[in-house]
Each structure stands twice: as C-alpha cells, then as structure tokens.
Amino acid sequence: MTRFILRRLLIAIPTVILISVFVFLLQKLLPGDPVLALAGEERDPETLAFLREKYRLNDPLPMQYLYWAQAALQGDLGISLRTRQPVLELIGEKLPVTLQLAVMSLTVAVAIGAPMGVLAAVKKGTFWDWIANAVALSGLSIPNFWLGIMLILLVSVNLGWLPASGYRPLSEDFWQSIRTMLMPAFVLGTGLAAALMRHTRSAMLGVLRMDYVRTARAKGLSERRVILRHALRNALGPVVTVSALLFGELLAGAVLTEQIFTIPGFGKAIVDAVFNRDYAVVQGVVLVTALAFIAMNLLADVAQALLNPRLRDAP
Amino acid sequence: MPRTITAIALLFAACAAGTVAAAQELRIGLQDDADILDPDQSRTFVGRIVYAGLCDKLVDIDPDLTIVPMLATGWEFSDGGTTLTMQLRDGVTFHDGTPFDAAAVVANIDRSKNLPESRRKSELASIESAEATGPLEVTMKLGAPDATLLSQFADRAGMMLSPTATEAMGLDFGLAPVCSGPFKFVERVQQDRIVLEKFPEYWNADAIHLERVVYLPIPDTTVRFANLRAGDLDMLERLAATDLAAAKADPDLTVESAVSLGYQGVTMNVGNGPRADNPLGRSALVRQALSLSIDRGALNQVVFEGAFAPGNQPFPPGSAWYDERFPVPTRDVAQAKALLAEAGHPDGVDIELQTTNNPVQLQVAQVLQAMAAETGIRLNIVSKEFATQLKDQTAGDFEASSIGWSGRTDPDGNIHQFQTCGGGINDSRICIPEVDELLNAARVGEDFAARKAAYDDARDILVKEGSIMYLYHPTWIWALDDAVTGFVPYPDGMIRLEGVRKAG
Fold it and tell me: Domain ends where: B122, B137, B170?
C-alpha cells in the first residue's frame, strides 16, 4: 500500500510542473498589459516603465517563469499586483472558504444523488426511475446563476429565511457561516447530484445483474438486505471515484455561484486576478488547485483500494 | 416524516433569528472590489469610496463642486499664482496618534511626487517644492500657475496618510492604511469585505453617527439590489438604471441620484499608427456625420431608461463649464448623409467599433450601429474584455473605441490629457496646436471667466475637428434602506459619511 501511494506521488511531480508551465504560458498569451491594467486611468509613462521593470515584465519569458518557480520552491508565491497582499496569505484566506463550500455541496450532492441512483436502479423502468431521471436532468440543465438568483429572491427577499450574503468564517461565527452557505451548497449540490445519480444508477444496475446477488436472493435474504448490504457496497467504487473528482472540481472554485452569493472563495479571487492580469495570484491559485485535484485523485484511488483489495497489487 | 418537516422548520427558524443586523453598522454594497488601499498607489473608483470614510483630504468639494476646507482651513495663491500657502487645522491626529501638522503634509506631498510606484505624480506635477513655514502652515512653490491643484487636493493626491505608518510600512501601507478620516481601518478580506470603525478622536466627530462601516463588493447589479431588498445591505452604489423603477416603487427604499462628472464617448483614431488611416480618422466631416446620425436622447431611453444625461461635451449640460452655444445635437440623417457625400463617401463607410464586453456597453454599441447604419456608416462591433480594449486603444490598434472616463472635479481633468498633442491619455493622437494653446492657458488661470472663455474657444475648434464623440454622462444612482438618513449625493459618486444616520 505504501509503495502504491509513493508511486502515485512521484507521478504527481511532473504533472504539477507541467501545469504550472502551461498556466504561465496561457497567461502570457492573454492580450492586455498587466501594468496598464494596474495603472488604470493614470498613465504616466515613467511610472509604467518603472513598474514594468520592477516586476521584470521586460525579461524573456523563460526567465520570468524561472524567477517564479525558484521563489515558489522556497514557498514564496509572490504578491498580488493589485493589492500587494502575499499570494500565500490570500490562498490561506480563501482555501478554508472553498473547502467548506466544497464539503457542504458534496454532502448535498451525495445525500440527493446516491439514494436517487439506488432507487432508480432498483425500480428500473418504473415511475420512480422516471422521476429520478427527470430530477437529474433538471439539476443538470438549470443554470446555477439562474437558480441562485431565484433562490435569493424567494428565500431571502420574499421569505426572509436566509441571508443573501454576509459570509463569515466558521471559526468566527458558526451559525452565520452555515446559514450563508446553505443556498450556495444547495445550488452546487443539486447540479452535482445529477451526475452522481447517473453514476450510482448504472453501477447499481451492473451489480444487480451479478450472480451473487441472485444467490443472496435465493438464500432468502430480505430485498432490503440484498440491496443495501450486498449490491450497494460493490456499486460504491465508481461512486466514490466520481465524488472525489467532483470534490476536486469544487476546489477550483465555483465562479458563478460564489459571485451570486458573495462567497469569498477561489472562484471570485481567480476571476478578479485574470481580469486584472494579476499573474502571481492566478499562478498561485491554479497551483494550489492542481495540487488539491491530484490529492483528491490519490485519495480516490486509495479509497478504491480499500474497498477492493484486488486493486492494491495492480501496477 | 412530520418529524423531519418540523426539524427543517426549526432549522430555518433558528437561522432566521440571527438575521437582525447590528444597528449603527452601515453595510454598503460596492460594484467592485477595491485595489490596494494606498491613495498614492491605488486606481479604482470603489477605492475612493472607501477613502471617503477612511482618509481626510486637504480640501473637499461641496455638491456644487466648490472647493471647501477640510484639513486645510484656508489657502492663498501669491506671486502670480506660483506660490500656494495653506493654513492647517489644529488638533487633528492620525488614527495611530501621530499629530497632523505641516511636516506631515510635506511628507505626504513628497511621497505622492517621489515614490516610484506613485500614480499621483502627474496630478501634483506643478509643485516644485513644499516647505513647512510654520507648525500649521505649508508653502508650496509651483513651476507655473496651476488652476487644477486645489481640485487634485480634493481627491487622492490630497489625502493625508500618517507619516509614521508610511515610514514603517513603505509600499505595504495599503495592507493596513492609517489616515485621519472619521473611520479607522479594521480589516479587509479580498473580494469579501472592508471594515472600518469609528475614530473617536476625529476632529469632526460630532457629525459621525455610525459605529462601523462595512464595504461589501457585489459585482452583479441584480444580486446587489436583491441583497438590499433582503436587508443584508443598508445601501448600495450604482443601481442599474433598469432597476430604478422597482427601487422607486419599493416603499422600504429611497433612491438618490446625481449626474456624474464623467462621460461615455467614442474615441476615434486620427493619428495613432497605421490604423488611423480610415474614413473617420482621415476626415473630420465623417466624424461630424457620425455624431449627427446619433439620437442621444433615444440612446439614453433605450439603454438607460432615461436615467442618464445625454451629452456632447466633456462636461455635462448644466455644468458651469458647459458651452451653451453647442447644445446636444438633434439627429439629422439628411445632413449626415450630405456630410458623408461631401467627404467623398456617397456610398457610406465601414468602421470598426471596439467596445467593452459587458451587456450594457454592447447594447450601447448596437444602438449606435443601428442609428449610424441609416446614414450609411456601417459600424462593425468588436467587443473586447476591458484590459484588452485598453491595451489596443493605447497601442493604436483600433479605429473607434467606445470608452468612458470617470471624470474629475476640475474641467481640465476631463479634456486636457485627451485633446492636447502630448496628452497622457490622448489615444486618438489628435494634435491641433491652437487647441493646445487654449487648453494650456485654461489650466493656469484662476479667473473663472477667462478659463471658461478658453474652453469655449477650444470647443469652437473641437466641435468640428474633435476626436471624441461624447454620448452621455452617467448618473450615479444610490438605493438606500429607509432606516438610513442624512445621505447627500455628490457628483463625484463618493459616499460621504458625515451626517449619515441609521435608525436602530
């Protein structure tokens, strides 16, 4: 098991390097000038030239990358051009917020998606299957920003049950934190539940056709026991993988949902950074997101291996 | 099942119980997140709104744009306008306890002028030296008379930062700014909130009735408005014109507005690189034809529900600087066609118009396109993300560019740098020596009539030859909860907190 994890970690290193090079180059391909974006309406040529020199924007691209990589290896991700806040500190502020939103959204997604998938598989071809599919389809096709604005208008403006904004960190104000996250987690969660439901359903359908399920039924076990104990456990593998991948995706920030509910996570940070050509912030946030994604993949593989011992020795 | 429902209902009830916002805390919704909170380095409009609570300036403006005392209680120009002497307010301290005096003012001017990262250099370019000539008296020597200087002191260049803090923090001053305004800095979370709290030793503390102010960036206008209606905000800036009717109809809200100092216009490339070689760039007649083909009133109705002010000059109609001889032109398709034919384009012309890729500006461009098409000017709209548009415009990679200017208190700031030969933001690269002479003369005089006459003479030329087609002046629209009183709208769009109260 340890060798399995070590090998996966080694593979991750070139991946991270490739991603950082790729993001660096993509940013440089963007039209627009960071110094001009930084100067705004004041455009004194001397100041612009000074800033360009100071942030080494005149140096050749490979050198610019190396400056960044060298500092990054020493744990220095640079400062935001827009606010002078250290990027590492910025990430430290945003990561817990994004993590909280990801955990809550995934909880909603699993709580809705998994039971619906099981139900749809067990009652395949019936009214229940049809309903589950219809719900999944609408979850996939309703745009997050629309659902978000409608929820704010209904729940916050008309009913006054939940605040439309005003997020506080969990450590500062637990209730406020949870209350402000309920709607965004619901919006994101229902979107993801659809994917999860489809995966659970097909995995369950595959398992329900297996011989051992027929054997379990033949032994006279109750249907409930056959499904929950025997079938579901084996169908969980792919569901865990999908959940981990969805979680990784959530860590990249849910731009629109964060904008609508004013949640100060990665999504809003990266959008502002891209528009302001705040290279260091984009680079830093993407790096952390990539690391998180790789970590989630690894966790998924480990979880798979735990659920299915046969995988542990696989190359 | 009923038990679950009860549980959910209880959960919601528990959640709802906590929503009563603290009284005396004013929550303001901003359209963007501010950049660095250092007046010498910052550039965003919303940053200036935060400074209105945080940093006092040497002077301020009143709603009619007259310069009024703030940290300077009196001032006098002498030596033919090349010396400015300012008397300073006694008993003022910065938030860190540092006393405000003449030495502090000198240190501030030095930082604005000489910090390499300063974005204020051009605003204070006329100052050659500043000296403390008394504990509360500063004397500045100017290279040339400068009529715009006081209005620069009424904005970021006149904001006084604690010298102790600028010394200690250097370029990172903006991470924990220390000024002398009515509120002091508490905390900031990027893209989330900026929190200020009352500064008890403020010199004008009697006018401050709030304990805390929280600025919350909420870029989406619909969401910002929904937050106000849900009670999560006490007031917001820049309500969308399309939400104006709904806000006015809501009995729990009040709406305030003021025509801004800025404008939106189309900048035309007349001399900035090879792309100036297009019909608009070559011929002033085509530029006049384009202007005549636009119904500015209709544009205002269609896109802004009539809430903005149609315009045709760098200053809004109604401003003391507006040239009444040239009112907002009425649309004249026949005349526009005649001008096109006279310019040698009887079959019309094709022009590329670049615009910012947000829904409102796209709509403006489409209205222009439809109107211009009727006179034979075929506008091909290219929408670009703002940073790209700005870069292309500066580099001369454009024919016509729809872009705005936030506006300055002194008229000079709305025209000089755009229409003089070496102007810093003269992206169209227009260069008319007589205009330069007039605009240069207008910035040195102190006499209103003489300055106005110079601007009017420049208008005589620019109305024919000019490279900016002015379209409208945005109106600042604030929406406030009924509990908030005492807010005074200013044409600079700032939110001054003196006198503002919030009913518990």
Answer: B170
Domain match, B338 and B398 both: yes
The answer to the question of residue B175 being in a domain is: no
Q: How many CB atoms lie within 10 A of CB B498?
A: 16
Whether B435 is in a domain gets the answer yes
Q: Which of A28, A41, A159, A168 to mutate to test the interface with B (most CBs of B within 10 A)?
A: A41
Cβ B424–A149 below 8 Å, yes or no? no
**Are residues B234 and B212 part of one domain?**
yes
- What does the alpha-carbon distance between residue B161 and residue B155 come to, in Å, rounded to a whole number? 13
Q: In terms of domains, do B284 and B190 share one?
A: no
| Residue A70 touches chain B, beta carbons under 8 Å | no
Q: Do A277 and B387 touch (CB under 8 A)?
A: yes
Please report whether residue B20 resides in a domain: no
Q: Are residues B198 and B123 in the same domain?
A: no
Residues B228 and B80 in one domain: no
Question: Any CB–CB contact under 8 A between B116 and chain A?
Answer: yes
Q: Which residues in chain B are contacts of A46 at CB distance < 8 A?
A: 121
On chain B, the residues whose CB falls within 8 A of the CB of A42 are 43, 119-120, 122-123
Please tell me whether residues B243 and B274 are part of one structural domain: no
H or E element at residue A38: helix A34-39
Q: What pLDDT tens digit does each residue of chain B (504 aa) get?
A: 445 555 555 445 444 444 434 568 999 999 989 999 999 999 889 999 999 999 999 999 999 999 999 999 999 999 999 999 999 999 999 999 999 999 999 999 999 999 988 989 889 999 999 999 999 999 999 999 998 999 999 999 999 999 999 999 999 999 999 999 999 999 999 889 999 999 999 999 999 999 999 999 998 888 999 999 999 999 999 999 989 999 999 999 999 999 999 999 999 999 999 999 999 999 999 999 999 999 999 999 999 999 999 999 999 998 999 999 999 999 999 999 999 999 999 999 999 999 999 889 999 999 999 999 999 999 999 999 888 898 899 999 999 999 999 899 999 999 999 999 988 889 999 999 999 999 999 998 778 999 999 999 999 999 999 899 999 999 999 999 999 999 999 999 999 999 999 987
Cα distance between residue A104 and residue A265, in whole Å: 14
**What CATH number corresponds to the domain at position B429?**
3.10.105.10
- B454 shares a domain with B482: no
Angstrom distances, CA of residue B252 to CA of A225, B228, B233, B255, B484 = 58, 10, 13, 10, 11
- E strand map for A165-305: none
Query: Residues of B with CB below 8 A from A256's CB?
Result: none
Domain that holds residue B112: 56-170
Among B residues 9-28, those touching chain A with beta carbons less than 8 Å apart:
12, 14-16, 18-19
**Which residue in chain A is spatially nearest to B214 when comparing CA positions?**
A166
Tokens of B23: 């009284």
Q: Does A165 touch chain B (CB under 8 A)?
A: yes
DSSP H/E element including B87: strand B83-88
B310, B471 in Cβ contact below 8 A?
A: yes
Residues of B in contact with A165 (CB under 8 A): 216, 218, 223, 227, 232-233
- CATH code of domain A91-313: 1.10.3720.10
> Domain boundary at B170, B201, B219, which?
B170
Helix (H) or strand (E) holding B292: helix B284-293
Residues of B with CB below 8 A from A82's CB? Answer: 35-36
- Kindly state whether B390 is in contact with chain A, defined as any CB-CB distance less than 8 angstroms: yes
A146 contacts chain B (CB < 8 A): no
Q: What is the DSSP string of B316-334?
A: -TTSTT--TTSPPPPP-HH
ipTM score of the complex? 0.83
- Whether B50 contacts chain A with CB within 8 A: no
Residue B35 tokens read as 């950049």
Same domain, residue pair B73 and B197 = no
Mutate to test the interface with A, among B48, B191, B391 (most CBs of A within 10 A): B191
Tell me where in chain A the CATH 1.10.3720.10 domain(s) lie.
Answer: 91-313
Q: Which residues pair with B30 in a beta bridge?
A: B217
pTM of the model: 0.87
Contact B116 A47 (CB under 8 A): yes
Q: Chain A closest CA to B375's CA: distance in Å?
A: 34
What CATH number is attached to the domain comprising B120? 3.90.76.10
